[in-house]
């Protein structure tokens, strides 16, 4: 009984803290200069002097600077461990029955995949999340039992593709309201996983399936949303209470606008669909941040899929990824403006540079 009371107190405290802070967080992460940019002598437009306070300055001209405010600002020196340390309380709240959605937004090449998936030893949020979930499940085994499953989806051209299905290319999937209130995709493969190794293998299988049928894997991934869903079914052994919750980890399509001359035929349709889904996501999250009475989830497959993990008492974390380079200034400003809108706050003041 004591443990049960402790859990209730912990949840209440957690709720109070979250209520005070709101359920939408935006973290801004800037990638390092690439070797090419460094050797070409490109200059930086980013000022990290107030990064500790969540402020990032963007030099928009020789004497002007725009300040944007976020919940966290990461410099290129901040590693995967420190980024995950900040994201960890949000992701692990899925084990306490909350729905969670984490997504990485930004221009192609700014580190969305680096943040979510990571590379080699530099594992990202996806791996670290699963690792942490299994660790907590083990720690809580005296009081709770958990069943964890994963789904891996891709949304490309407003079509959902199940990357764990045996025939991933042919299926056209639709979203339905499940009986228990969840939105889900009937027939989607849910792989039950018992430990981090199994979970990682499933993710790799999903990743491999992504490449099937596309000539250029990198181009294809920058134009589709890669969506990992972790489903948690929990039973509290003391109270007997059962809960179901979802955690979405999403690596979004690149947010860059293509040059008008470049866009024709299939590329035009692709670009329009990316635009549509990213602006639908911005509309939904900013409607939530502004406590609007109508939340337009139905405007894209992406937001429709995420519906039960955006809003209500669910928690949302957005990584806005940017490039430090002067060459990308236009896209950087556009991403930061988008992220500020998502956070439900107005733009920071334009300051004279000192
Ligand atoms: P995106 O998914 O936005 O297209 P990537 O994740 O593929 O971008 O990143 C582009 C390149 O920059 C990759 O080689 C990646 O390893 C590197 N990179 C991005 N962010 C970081 C970082 N914070 N630290 C080190 N390398 C990074």
TrEMBL record:
Family the entry assigns: Belongs to the TRAFAC class myosin-kinesin ATPase superfamily. Kinesin family. KIN-14 subfamily.
Residues of the full protein shown: 396 to 749 of 1059
Binding site for ATP: 106-113
Protein name: MALECTIN DOMAIN KINESIN 2
Ranges of residues in domain Kinesin motor: 23-345
Annotated coiled-coil segments of the chain: 1-23
């Amino acid at each position: 009984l004591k443990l049960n009371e402790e859990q209730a107190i912990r949840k209440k405290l957690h709720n109070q803290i979250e209520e005070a802070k709101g359920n939408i967080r935006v973290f801004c992460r800037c990638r390092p200069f690439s070797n090419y940019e460094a050797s070409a002598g490109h200059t930086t437009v980013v000022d990290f002097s107030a990064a500790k306070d969540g402020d990032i300055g963007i030099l928009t001209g020789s004497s002007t600077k725009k300040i944007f405010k976020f919940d966290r600002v990461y410099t290129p020196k901040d590693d995967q461990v420190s980024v995950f340390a900040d994201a960890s309380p949000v992701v692990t709240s899925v084990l306490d029955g909350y729905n969670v959605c984490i997504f990485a937004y930004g221009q192609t090449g700014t580190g969305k995949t680096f943040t979510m998936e990571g590379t080699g030893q530099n594992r990202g949020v996806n791996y670290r999340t699963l690792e942490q979930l299994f660790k907590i499940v083990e720690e809580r085994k005296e009081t709770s039992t958990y069943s964890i499953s994963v789904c891996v989806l891709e949304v490309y051209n407003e079509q959902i593709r199940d990357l764990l299905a045996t025939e991933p290319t042919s299926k056209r999937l639709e979203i339905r309201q499940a009986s228990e209130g969840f939105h889900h995709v009937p027939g989607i493969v849910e792989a039950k996983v018992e430990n981090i190794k199994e979970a990682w293998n499933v993710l790799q299988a999903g990743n491999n399936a992504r490449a099937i049928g596309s000539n250029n894997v990198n181009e294809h991934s920058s134009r589709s949303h890669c969506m990992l869903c972790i489903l948690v079914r929990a039973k509290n052994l003391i109270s007997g209470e059962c809960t179901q919750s979802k955690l979405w980890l999403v690596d979004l399509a690149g947010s860059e606008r293509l040059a008008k001359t470049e866009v024709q035929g299939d590329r035009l349709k692709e670009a329009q669909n990316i635009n549509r889904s990213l602006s639908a996501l911005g509309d939904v999250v900013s409607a939530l941040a502004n406590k609007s009475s109508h939340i337009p989830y139905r405007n894209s497959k992406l937001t429709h899929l995420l519906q039960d993990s955006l809003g209500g008492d669910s928690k949302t974390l957005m990584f806005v990824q940017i490039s430090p380079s002067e060459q990308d200034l236009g896209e950087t400003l556009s991403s930061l403006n988008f992220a500020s809108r998502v956070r439900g706050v107005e733009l920071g003041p334009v300051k004279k540079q000192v």
